[in-house]
Write a structure and sequence with these properties.
Layout: E1 2-6, H1 10-21, E2 25-29, H2 33-40, H3 51-60, E3 64-67, H4 70-76, E4 79-82, H5 97-109, E5 114-118, H6 126-137, E6 142-146, H7 156-161, E7 166-169, H8 173-183, E8 193-196, H9 198-229, H10 233-241, H11 262-275, H12 281-305, E9 313-317, H13 332-342, E10 346-350, H14 355-362, E11 367-368, E12 381-384, H15 396-402, E13 407-410, H16 417-422, E14 426-428
Helix pairs in contact: 1-3, 4-5, 5-6, 9-11, 9-12, 11-12, 12-13
Length: 433
């Protein structure tokens, strides 16, 4: 099947490569000509394990093509996926101008029946608006389908190739059948395609992400109380997670959620609630707790070193919002490092994949090192902000010898408290007194 995907960002590129790997002819479209030329050369703009190899192999087999010619791609394809960005507006709502612009362009290029798929995360009612735009600009029949993605950064390729479920929001039997055909190679050992109406599919993506975000904030709020009363948040987590009704995913106390999805989707759902006179109290609280969690960590540092940090240097391990990605959107590291800089501190930082990304946020305000240990040379303490595997078992004797003070602030509760205290470290965690 010929498939066009408009947008070569995180979702579009992963989807395009994976659809091509299942034997489809995929044309990935973007209006950024420089980006298209880089992709043609095999230069991938994002770090995602397994993606570069998948792109290169399918380009070599001529199943995956990158182009800026939307008109030609739409004419060749029966199915067109819209996978452009839906950035957060100033009021928290999703900005849909790119989605609507693409819908109009698709309509003007149609030459026969098409299935137009909203792959971007969009609020309830967007499919209706997309359909209206297409009707105004095309005489050809079409159906609009909602097909939200549920990819975890750092595991996106595997998530797409082996999905828990695929949700198809469709009000057309014809479009539903086409979508089921597209996804059938992904489910040879079982059928996990869930078909529902379009609005329910649009809501499902926001509901799922907001629930997971709430779970994270709930655990952080419990951890903060644990610190006050002398309980151990890790023991509480274990006690909770062994309950099969709760499970152990997204239940680790830390610095809160970040990235391109959770913060944006939570705010968009809150905004949708306001627009429909339905206050989203729980989700609003989750958003509030998440913002405050970074400030609580900053306060720990200030309590230890004082308000004036002009003569202090902090060695930071981890900048990305999570491991296995170079994405720093809404990363806790941004808030924490900026707060330290505002108080006059010097910051040296290392991240296995996000060093170039960090320069967009901090420019030359911090020092970027070539190794994790280099950040600690002459630093007053170490801050662990991202739980990369490379940071899990460091040489603590070396860490101690490099630091001015044997102090570690662990925003991910990664290390063994007793072991570090036995080695003479001051060790600060989340959820422990």
């Amino acid at each position: 099947m010929y498939i066009t995907i408009i947008g070569t960002g995180y979702v579009g590129l992963v989807a395009g490569a994976c659809f091509a790997d299942m034997g489809n002819n995929v044309i990935c479209i973007d209006n950024n000509l420089e980006k298209i030329e880089q992709l043609k050369k095999g230069i991938i703009p994002i770090y995602e394990p397994g993606l570069e190899e998948l792109v290169k192999s399918n380009v070599l087999e001529n199943r995956l093509v990158f182009s800026s010619d939307l008109d030609s791609a739409v004419k060749k394809s029966q199915v067109c996926f819209i996978a452009v960005g839906t950035p957060q507006g100033e009021d928290g709502s999703a900005d849909l101008k790119y989605v609507f612009n693409v819908a109009e362009s698709i309509a003007k290029s149609m030459n026969e029946y098409k299935v137009i798929v909203d792959k971007s995360t969009v609020p309830v009612g967007t499919a209706e608006k997309v359909a209206s735009i297409i009707k105004q600009n095309s005489i050809y029949p079409f159906d609009v389908v909602s097909n939200p993605e549920f990819l975890k950064q750092g595991n996106a390729v595997d998530d797409f190739l082996h999905p828990d479920r695929v949700i198809i929001g469709s009000d057309s039997d014809r479009a539903t059948q086409i979508m089921q055909d597209i996804y059938s190679p992904f489910f040879r050992t079982g059928n996990r395609v869930i078909v529902m109406d379009v609005k329910s599919a649009e809501m499902t993506k926001y509901a799922a992400n907001s629930f997971l975000a709430t779970k994270i904030s709930f655990m952080n709020e419990i951890a903060n109380l644990c610190e006050k009363v002398g309980a151990d948040a890790e023991m509480v987590r274990v006690g909770m997670s062994t309950d099969s009704r709760i499970g152990n995913k997204f239940l680790f106390p830390g610095l809160g959620y970040g990235g391109s999805c959770f913060p944006k989707d939570v705010k968009a759902l809150i905004k949708t609630g306001l627009e429909n006179n339905c206050e989203m109290s729980i989700i609003s609280s989750a958003d509030k707790v998440n913002k405050e969690q970074r400030n609580i960590f900053i306060e720990k540092i200030i309590t230890r070193f004082g308000q004036n940090l002009q003569d202090k240097t902090f060695g930071v391990w981890g900048l990305a919002f999570k491991p296995k990605t170079n994405d720093m959107r809404e990363a806790p590291a941004i808030t924490i490092i900026n707060a330290l800089l505002e108080k006059g501190a010097k910051v040296k930082a290392f991240d296995p994949k996000a060093m170039e990304t960090a320069k967009f946020y901090f420019e030359d305000k911090i020092t970027y090192t070539k190794t994790a240990y280099e950040t600690l040379e002459g630093a007053d303490c170490m801050l662990l902000l991202t739980e990369w595997n490379e940071f899990r078992r460091p040489d603590f004797e070396k860490v101690k010898s490099l630091l001015k003070n044997p102090v570690i602030f662990d925003g991910r509760n990664q290390y063994d408290e007793k072991r570090l205290k036995d080695k003479g470290f001051e060790y600060y965690q989340i959820g422990k007194k």
